[in-house]
Every structure is written in C-alpha cells, then in structure tokens.
C-alpha cells in the first residue's frame, strides 16, 4: 500500500500520495480560506545548518499580502508562509559553531543580509515571502549564519515578534539618530509602532503616539508615550506642532503609509527625519513633494534590518528589559482565526500562533 500525506484545508480535507512526519501550513496565495495543513518529511540539517523546532510565530501585515496573493507577493507554487518566529535548536550539523542544541533562536528575515547597508545581493529570498522559506512549520532548517540567539529576558512568544517588527523599529530609530530628548512621532499602535515607542522611551526620547482608538492611546501612555493624539478628532500635524512649540518632531515613524506621508511632512521639523515603513494605506499615493523640499527633511525607506541589527536589538532588550506587547496567542490549528484577527485591525500589539 502506498503511503499518503493528509492535507487539511480550512474547512475540508483530502488525501495525496507521499510520506511524512511533521506538520506545515501551505498557501498558494489564494486567501486565508485556501490555507491547508500538510504532513511532510522531517527536514535534515546539512553540515552548517541547524534544525529549528518552531515554538511560536508572530503575524505581520506582509503575511496577509503573501497569503492573499497580492501583486508580487503571490507565490507561483504552494509555499510555507509566515516570516517571524522563535524556536529551539533540536539538532546541528557537523560543522556548526554558532549554536548548540537547546538554544532558543530567531531566524533572520533577509537571510543574506548580515551587516552593513542593504544591497541587491543581500536583498533576496526573504523569510515567509513568495519564494523564501516560511516558518509556519513544526521544523525548519537554516544555515547557522541566518539566525541569532533570542533575548534571555523574553519567552519564545515574546521573542517571536522581533525578526520583522522588532528589527524594523530598531532600524528606523537607529538610522534616524535617536538620542535622549529626541521628539519622536509614532503613527499607530501596530507591532512596529509599539516597539518603536518602547525603544524610544527606553532611550529617553519624548514620544508622541497617534491612533483613532482611545483605548489604544491609553495603553500607549502606559508604555511610555509622553503625549497621545486621537487622529479622528484632531489635526495630527497641528497638534504635534502645538506640543513642540511650533518646531515639529525630530523623527517620524511612518507606519501607515500612502497619503499619510503628507501628515508626516507637516509634522516633522525642518531638517528632521521620516522613517517610512507602512503599507497599510496602500502601495501608492499622491503626496506633496513641495512639502518634502520645504521641510528639508530626510526620508528613509526602512526595509526590516540586518542580522547585526537584530543582534543589537536583542542586546538592547536584555539591557533595558523591554517586553514586546502581545495582543493575543492562538493555537497552531487556529491560524485562520489569527490571520482574520490581524486583518480586522482591532489588535493592539502582536498576534502570535504557538506550535
């Protein structure tokens, strides 16, 4: 009798030929309902690879783009999705020197970007992308150079939020030159925004947070925001200028994107910095280039971060006891529910799935 793999789609199941012993979730970019669970062969680490047992995965907006198959994020074959994760090293190859069995580690988002600036050669095969490895699997192998040790002060659920959202916030603040007393405007209360708030507050910056939901602003103040702005009631840029004596913010963390960039250009001080991250308001927008010229501001496009940046973030978190905000945790089998919760946009902090 021929062996089979059981493939369970959200709401139904079917049998296909094969062998296997671990669970993965697969997508073809056909939406949350198209996600299907399969049992496949255990991966075996090569000489310089580690075998990671996935403990937790944290969801990001880009995961929805892959799973929904939007634009260039659509896979051309079934793939394992999800970028952010933390896991335990279960086995190591014969030439591995950076890790030992039992270490809790984080996979890097861009496996080839180890240090220095991002280049065409290192901007390749992002984790959880339409062609790179994904983390929604019980076991994953990777080169030992493509992972870092997790913070000692965090559990795996908390640490899973760092390789994408955490390092993106770190990169944004690092590149814009944050220091004690810097005025930082953070748009929103998503995973990147909250981590930027927490890092900036730990540095000693004066943080202003915007949101359209009062209860999220309440939480932002608890996390260290000096000021909060309800963007549904107030003109954000005008309020930032009022709070800064007409000067504006030194740094703006733009996590919304689209035409909200105009708001950031109105709110930033002359010669300030805008770290542009967000895609929530769309991939394109008409903005005022005149404002960019007259503010003499520097606009930084922020693409996650390198392994070196992730290592810096880990050290910072351990030193300052920063704890990422977790909105909710879900079981492996409830990945569809977790993704719908993320899609709804009502979460505060990271949505995490545990294996």
Overview of this protein structure:
The chain is an alpha/beta fold. The chain folds into 2 domains: 4-151 and 324-354, Alpha-Beta Complex (Quinone Oxidoreductase, Chain A, domain 1); 167-301, Rossmann fold. The protein has 10 helices and 17 strands. It has helices at 61-68, 156-159, 162-176, 191-203, 214-222, 236-243, 260-267, 289-295, 307-320, 335-344; strands at 4-9, 12-17, 22-26, 36-40, 49-58, 84-92, 104-107, 139-143, 147-149, 183-187, 206-211, 227-230, 249-254, 268-276, 298-301, 326-331, 350-354. The strands form 3 sheets. Strands 5, 6, 7, 8, 9, 16 and 17 form a 7-stranded mixed sheet that branches. It has a 6-stranded parallel sheet with strand order 12-11-10-13-14-15, with helices on both faces. Strand 11, helix 5 (214-222) and strand 12 (227-230) form a beta-alpha-beta unit. The radius of gyration is 21 Å and the shape is globular. The chain starts with a strand and ends with a strand. The relative contact order is 0.15. The model is unreliable at 1-19 (pLDDT under 50).
């Amino acid at each position: 009798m021929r062996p089979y793999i059981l493939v369970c789609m959200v709401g139904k199941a079917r049998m296909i030929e094969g062998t296997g012993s671990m669970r993965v979730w697969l997508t073809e970019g056909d939406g949350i309902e198209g996600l299907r669970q399969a049992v496949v062969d255990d991966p075996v680490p090569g000489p310089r690879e580690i075998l990671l047992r996935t403990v937790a995965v944290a969801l990001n907006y880009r995961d929805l783009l892959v799973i929904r198959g939007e634009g260039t994020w659509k896979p051309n074959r079934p793939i394992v999705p999800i970028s952010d994760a933390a896991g335990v090293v279960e086995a190591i190859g014969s030439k591995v020197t950076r890790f030992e069995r039992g270490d809790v580690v984080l996979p890097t988002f861009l496996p080839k970007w180890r240090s220095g600036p991002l280049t065409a050669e290192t901007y390749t095969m992002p984790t959880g992308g339409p062609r790179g490895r994904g983390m929604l699997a019980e076991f994953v192998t990777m080169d030992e150079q493509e992972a870092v040790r997790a913070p000692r002060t965090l559990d795996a659920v908390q640490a899973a939020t760092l390789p994408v959202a955490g390092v993106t916030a770190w990169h944004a603040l690092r590149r814009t030159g944050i220091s004690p007393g810097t005025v930082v405007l953070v748009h929103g209360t998503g995973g990147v925004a909250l981590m930027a708030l927490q890092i900036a507050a730990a540095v000693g910056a004066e943080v202003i947070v915007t949101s359209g939901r009062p209860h999220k602003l309440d939480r932002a103040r608890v996390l260290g925001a000096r000021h909060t702005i309800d963007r549904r009631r107030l003109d954000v840029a005008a309020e930032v200028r009022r709070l800064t004596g007409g000067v504006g913010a030194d740094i703006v963390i733009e996590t919304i994107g689209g035409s909200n960039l105009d708001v950031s250009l109105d709110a930033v001080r002359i010669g300030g910095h805008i770290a542009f991250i967000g895609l929530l308001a769309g991939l394109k927008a008409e903005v005022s280039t005149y404002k960019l010229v007259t503010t003499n501001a520097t606009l930084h496009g922020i693409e996650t971060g390198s392994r070196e940046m992730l290592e810096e973030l880990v050290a910072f978190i351990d030193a300052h006891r920063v704890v990422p905000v977790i909105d909710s945790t879900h079981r492996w089998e409830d990945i569809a529910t977790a993704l719908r919760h993320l899609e709804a946009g009502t979460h505060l902090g990271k949505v995490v799935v545990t294996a």
